[in-house]
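chain below, 346 aa
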Amino acid sequence: MRSRLILLPLILILILCILALRLVGFVHLFFEHAGTAITQEEIWSAHFGKEGEGKKDERQQRIPKIIHQVFHNWKEPGNETMPADWEETRGTCLGKNGDLEYMLWTETKSRLFIKDHYPWFLPTYNGYNFPVQRVDTVRYFLLRHFGGIYIDLDNGCLENLEPLLYLPAFTTDGGRGALSNNILGSAPSHAFWILMTESLIPYNWNYLFPYITISYASGQWFETAIWEQYHLEREKKKKLGVGLKDGEVKEEDKIYRIWMDDRPISEGGKGGGKEGWRFWTQERGGTWVNWDNRLFLWVGDHLILLCVAVVGLNALLWWGARRCLRGSAGGRRKKRGLMKRDEEDV
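prediction:
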């Protein structure tokens, strides 16, 4: 009995320490990110010149001239007719980028692609609880295999995307915490997408809440976690002098995050805010909304308050555990005192 009284608080303290470490690692996903951020205007200017004089870009083109889009109609399986507004939106990208190959990935084509090229992932792909997770994951494999630019169907195009082809790889940053996976680009076989795709199985957990499961097992939170891991590993290699060119990470191993913050500059919009959107538009989305989305959107808006509450709860539990330990120790001392007094009386 005595050992149980001691063991229980110790187990509780250990659990609290593990939770605190996990919380710190998790919260880190929603604040400042590693790596190089770049604005859409900077990409445009690097290609055409600051005044848009149409200078020839002497850099090496790294991303293939391919646009990928994914359409899985999980509400009406087998119906591959796209909603009219999405058809119009993707038409803006087709119209502005006639020189780029276009690849539309339906549910059937996506599964065949995974089966043919990454059969080791097919059981996980088929086993996802939420259809949007297959839309999330297939895009990562497409970039790993073919390279190119992936665009969600609710994003339209304002300009030709050629200036982006001179980056080795990129993701997008909405400036509100986790990175975005709505628009992505890469050369084929880039180390980041290899790490992404090979991390999907270890991250494939059911977190009870649909929003957390989708976000952290395959979506934006997952992408952000791997982003941080990738840059941490690059920094370690840099310190060891591995995979460097002239003391820096090789250009082909870099990946940029492009600002896509739609808040006005006056409200803290980063990268020029919505005024700085040179390449894309944002139209109707929200097709993967579940019952808990509003809850976690609220959490995202009150993240600091929530962290304070969690830390306070941990402190309260820690105090309770210490009280238990002291109470147990005090009880033992009292019992020993009574036993000693009984012996003296005898």
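The chain has two domains: 1-30+302-346, 35-293. The mean pLDDT is 82.
thats it, cya
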